[in-house]
């Protein structure tokens, strides 16, 4: 879903724009990314603070072992050794790699990796909607 704002936004140190990925770009395995959200902590503790953590992109081949239905509109990321991942309540949040919005928190199991919507796969649709 894309949202159209009803008024202009004042950009400052707290409110900034972020670039979209280049058309059809894919993320190399191991790319370092940031995720952020207000989701559950430790699987059961709610928070009113915005948390962020670093994750890495998983290879598509490795990810299909966890998610056999993975398609080109999805990308996997997580920090397997440190068990860092998005959580329940983080859905819709950003996956930012190299200061570019590459994904949107989508779904996952109780441990990494998580699955993210791959923004570059939907650029034609995004551009079409923005023109309208």
TrEMBL record:
<feature type="domain" description="Peptidase S1">
    <location>
        <begin position="1"/>
        <end position="131"/>
    </location>
</feature>
<dbReference type="InterPro" id="IPR043504">
    <property type="entry name" value="Peptidase_S1_PA_chymotrypsin"/>
</dbReference>
<dbReference type="InterPro" id="IPR001254">
    <property type="entry name" value="Trypsin_dom"/>
</dbReference>
<dbReference type="Pfam" id="PF00089">
    <property type="entry name" value="Trypsin"/>
</dbReference>
<dbReference type="InterPro" id="IPR033116">
    <property type="entry name" value="TRYPSIN_SER"/>
</dbReference>
<dbReference type="InterPro" id="IPR009003">
    <property type="entry name" value="Peptidase_S1_PA"/>
</dbReference>
<keyword id="KW-1015">Disulfide bond</keyword>
<protein>
    <recommendedName>
        <fullName>Peptidase S1 domain-containing protein</fullName>
    </recommendedName>
</protein>
<comment type="similarity">
    <text>Belongs to the peptidase S1 family. CLIP subfamily.</text>
</comment>
<dbReference type="GO" id="GO:0006508">
    <property type="term" value="P:proteolysis"/>
</dbReference>
<dbReference type="GO" id="GO:0004252">
    <property type="term" value="F:serine-type endopeptidase activity"/>
</dbReference>
């Amino acid at each position: 879903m894309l949202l159209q704002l009803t008024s202009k936004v004042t950009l400052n140190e707290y409110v900034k724009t972020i670039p979209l990925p280049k058309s059809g770009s894919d993320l190399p395995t191991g790319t370092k990314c940031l995720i952020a959200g207000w989701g559950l902590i430790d699987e059961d503790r709610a928070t009113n603070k915005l948390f962020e953590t670093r994750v890495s992109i998983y290879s598509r081949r490795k990810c299909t072992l966890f998610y056999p239905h993975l398609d080109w509109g999805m990308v996997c990321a997580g920090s397997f050794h440190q068990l860092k991942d998005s959580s329940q309540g983080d859905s819709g949040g950003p996956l930012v790699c190299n200061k570019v919005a590459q994904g949107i928190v989508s779904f996952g199991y109780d441990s990494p990796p998580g699955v993210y919507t791959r923004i570059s796969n939907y650029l034609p649709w995004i551009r079409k909607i923005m023109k309208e």
